[in-house]
Amino acid sequence: MVEEKKNISANVVVLGVVSFLNDVASEMVYPVVPIFLVTVLGAPTYVVGLIEGLADALSKILQSFFGIFSDQSQKRKPYVVWGYSFATLSHLMMCLASSWPLVMVARVINRTGKGIRTSSRDALITESTDKLDRGRNFGFHRTLDSLGAVVGPLLSIWLLKILHDNYRQLFFIAFFPALIGVVLLILLIKEQIKSPLGLKGLHFEWSKANDSYKIFLLISFIFTLGNSSGAFMILRAQNLGLSIQLTILTYVLLNSTYAVFSMPAGIVADKIGARKVLFLGFLVFAFVYLSFGAINNPWWIWVLFPIYGIFLAFTDGVGKTYISKLIPHEISASAFGIYQTLMGIATFFASTIAGLLWTLGNARLPFYFGGIMAVISALLFLVLTKRIRVQQPLA
């Protein structure tokens, strides 16, 4: 419980710094993994998609399972520490990878770490903050997290120039900020001792989840069916004529915008309510995707990518704030995990649909489809979530 309103919890500060360090390390590695696979290890291009698809799917699914484990044990810190430790270990494994299957193992371990830690980390933020300031705290965490996503790729470009494109040395350097983050977690995170719930088996206490939470899951699933992989935005940028270098810069611009707006979005959510902020986020997404489908001039990309960053800021941390107000604390990790798993499944279908629309139709169709799904979701959200029945007691 936060003793004074409008404060950022000490735990959230530590988690934010750790997320920053981990994202610096991960984003140093992530953009160059496809290049490393194809140019150094000689892997065929389809392997890149296989590795990232498998790793991301596993991450989403594990969030649900480990969220339930965390709720049953009523422990958060061990899962957060182990999750970040897995990610740290993966960078060392990348240094030693001599074939693409070993890169797959490293990437799976990296994303497994994300699956282990995410639900428990979000639950720890929820339990460490006052109800009225939760949006501010989630926004603060996401700001530092997304700042790491900006610093990482920029640092990678600089280091590769110094290292003369020695990818293995880059992977080794990335190990150290991630390691510092794990040490900070072990030393500084404080968790209240709670009695285990004594539940058996892998199950979610649906009886403790109200209808508002279930409705939000449904609407989020529908929306995410149109929210295909960001790879399609990158492909669209190149389809319109931007070079690879300029496309990467637009990606950095997107992450920069996300970092700038994450904290304000959380503060706005605290003041006017997460529901209104989320509704605005759906509309922003619809505008961006419909515009991606309609534009012909590649320079519009420089406008749409940062606007998409605003959408991410409004819907990521704020979405978690919204969920946190619908569920009791004792099932919060499970609730976050169920949400992330459903979004992972929906994202898989979204990318499949987008790929079929692009291949069988044209490059515009995936974005028209996504924009229409966002409009439908916004209308459903507006109509079905007028009244939130809060289950958590005031912190």
From TrEMBL:
One of its GO terms (molecular function) is transmembrane transporter activity. Residues 11-389 form the Major facilitator superfamily (MFS) profile domain. InterPro entries: MFS, MFS_dom, MFS_trans_sf. The chain crosses the membrane at residues 29-51, 81-109, 144-164, 170-189, 215-234, 240-261, 273-292, 298-315, 336-359, 365-384. Keywords: Membrane, Transmembrane, Transmembrane helix. PANTHER family: C-METHYLTRANSFERASE, MAJOR FACILITATOR SUPERFAMILY TRANSPORTER. This is Major facilitator superfamily. It comes from Candidatus Collierbacteria bacterium GW2011_GWC2_43_12.
